[in-house]
Structure formats: structure tokens, C-alpha cells
């Protein structure tokens, strides 16, 4: 078993590309990649991790257990399981909104989009407790993170000369 715990994978083509592996990913943060994680011929689980701000959060070609993750603010899909022949179980995931992911079977979903072959219901109404609540955000980029009454967030900011940091709270969404 390949174990990855309390790790950050960001700003790559693939945050993680796992092939023919047995994995255990806990409390990871995967962001800023074209593809956050891609699984192929892989088994195991990913739990209490955050997959955010990628082109596509997860591309799945094999079954893994997804347990209490937060998958949000990904540009194209939260999960793309279009090549799967069976459903990927992503129940009890937070998709960026309490209404769940956007899908043909959930057209009012305001969270990340998912393809067919993703079982997404029931959804978490708030972000999963990840125990890694530091979000890295380069100045000049925007990341919208709904606030959960159960989680405190800390922003790790890398200052850049001549750039301003603006933190805006939208109290109408609280």
C-alpha cells in the first residue's frame, strides 16, 4: 500500500497520476493542476482530502473509495468517470455547494460538475472535516470557499511586491 498523508500537490499537469497502485490518501490538498488526480488500475481510498482549483479534480478509470472529501472550484469537472463501466462511489462528498454537483440528474446542483458513472448522493452540506485547513492562494488569483460554521480556514499568502491582497466576505451567502 502506498500511503500519502498531509500532502500538498499543486501547479502541475497532474497533481497525482496513479497507475497499478494500491493507495491510501489522507488529508491531502490537491490544487492548481490541469488534472488533480488520475487513477488507472488503482485501488484503495482517499479520505478527508480537498481537491480544488484544478481543471478537472479527479479523472477515474478504476474504482477507489472516496470518503468525506471536499471537491470544489474545479473548472471542468469535479470528477470525470466517463470511461468507467461501473459507478464510482463519491457519496458524502462536499461539492462546493449544499445542492450537490451539477449533473443531468441534478440540474439544480451548484457544485462542481460530474460525469455519468458517479454516485454522488447523499452530499455533505458543508466541507468535509479535513484537519488540513490551510488553503494556499497566490496573490492575483481568486478562490471562492463557502464558510462552514464547523471549520476555520487559514490563508497562506506569499506576498509579492506591488500586489494587493483583498479578502472579501459575502455575508449574503452565510
End-to-end span in angstroms? Answer: 41 Å
Question: So what's the overall shape?
Answer: globular
Count of DSSP strands: 18
Order the strands across the largest sheet as they lie in space: 1-4-7-10
Assess the beta-strand content as a share of residues. 35-45%
Radius of gyration, taken over Cα atoms and rounded to an integer in Å: 16 Å
Structural class: mainly beta
- List SSEs in N-to-C order: EEEEEEEEEEEEEEEEEE
Q: What integer is the average pLDDT?
A: 82
SS element count, helices: 0
- Low-confidence regions: 148-152
Largest pleated sheet: 4 strands, parallel
| Helix content class | under 10%
Short key terms for the protein model shown above:
mainly beta, 174 residues, 4-stranded parallel beta sheet, 0% helix
Structure explained in plain terms:
There is one protein chain. 0% of the residues lie in helices and 37% in strands. The protein contains no helices and 18 strands. It has strands at 2-5, 8-10, 14-19, 22-26, 29-31, 35-40, 43-47, 50-52, 56-60, 65-67, 70-72, 77-80, 88-89, 101-102, 111-113, 118-119, 134-136, 154-156. It is globular and about 35 Å long.
